[in-house]
Specification:
The chain has 287 residues and is α+β, with helices and mostly antiparallel strands. The protein folds into 2 domains: 141 residues, START domain (Alpha-D-Glucose-1,6-Bisphosphate, Chain A, domain 4), CATH 3.30.530.20; 121 residues, START domain (Alpha-D-Glucose-1,6-Bisphosphate, Chain A, domain 4). The protein has an 8-stranded antiparallel β-sheet with strand order 1-2-8-7-6-5-4-3. α3 crosses α4 and α4 runs antiparallel to α6. The longest helix is centred in the middle third of the chain and has 19 residues. It is elongated and about 70 Å long. The two termini are 32 Å apart.
Length: 287
């Protein structure tokens, strides 16, 4: 059984994963620290000098870049922690009822990538359990199932809600959402078959229910679209959609809307609209 939560760690966002394993601490410790076990399920091949302050190298399995880290904590066979570039991983084991409980805390800077990290760790820990059971590791798992897990984590970790901040003359709504498809898929799903242009109509996919759209004010194909929204037939603020680089293979969506103090930010309308958009992307074929 696995429990995953979002928390703060030293002022940074962290995802905490707890899993009950039907294996003793010593056996799981080998899976965490011995390359012949660890490198069968971990996303990189790991080369570590097992001492506090020792270096850690994360080598891509099919060649390419090598990332670095340092061991920050080591108490065999209970605890190992190390940096991974700017991230930090902390693995703890405690015995329980003939097996043990594994707790992973992954500290990062990217709060909105947490659903991707949680999904990836779930797949990795499934692989670890296969190693512990002496079975072949099934790499990656079913992509459709992983997409569904990602979307579930978005909701469970509270990553599906906008924030609203006060400005000098009104408010600014901001919604950041990791998507499961790249911009090459997300952009056509957002704007439809046409090619929106400045001064032209706003694609229906960019407008939530209850919001009146004016004209497009800016377009950067596959990257950004901005338009005026109307109140009483007059421009009341701006809406901007942006697609950028995200975690994994999906684009990162950032949606912003500005408005005057006497207007109410349409939080529910945007939440429903963007969740429908994300759901449609989940159903789209991977490229």
């Amino acid at each position: 059984m696995t429990a995953t939560t979002l928390r703060a760690e030293d002022g940074r966002p962290a995802v905490r994963v707890e899993r009950r394993l039907a294996h003793p601490v010593e056996k799981v410790w080998r899976a965490l620290t011995e390359p012949s076990h660890l490198n069968r399920w971990f996303p990189f091949d790991v080369e570590a000098d097992l001492k506090v302050g020792g270096t850690v190298r994360f080598v891509e399995k099919e060649g390419g870049s090598t990332l670095g880290g340092v061991i920050t904590d080591l108490e065999p066979p209970r605890l190992i922690a190390y940096s991974w570039e700017t991230d930090h991983l902390r693995w703890e084991l405690r015995p329980e009822d003939g097996g043990c409980v594994l707790v992973l805390v992954h500290t990062v800077d990217d709060r909105y990538g947490m659903a991707s990290f949680a999904t990836g760790w779930q797949a990795c820990l499934d692989g670890m359990e296969q190693v512990l059971a002496g079975r072949p590791v099934t790499a990656g798992g079913d992509p459709a199932a992983m997409d569904a897990v990602h979307e579930r984590f978005v909701a469970e970790l509270g990553l599906d809600r906008a924030t609203v901040t006060e400005t000098g003359d009104g408010w600014r709504l901001r919604y950041e959402r990791q998507l499961v498809r790249p911009d090459s898929v997300a952009w056509p799903a957002l704007v439809g078959d046409g090619a929106p242009a400045a001064g032209g109509p706003v694609p229906a996919g960019c407008v939530p229910a209850g919001l009146a759209a004016g004209a497009v004010t800016e377009v950067t194909p596959s990257r950004a679209l901005e338009y005026d929204w109307l109140d009483g037939g007059r421009a009341a603020g701006r809406v901007r959609w942006e697609l950028g680089t995200g975690t994994g293979h999906g684009a990162r969506l950032v949606l912003t809307q500005t408005g005057p103090s006497d207007a109410t930010p349409p939080l529910d309308g945007w939440h429903e609209h963007i969740e429908r958009f994300a759901s449609a992307l989940t159903a789209a074929q991977r490229t």
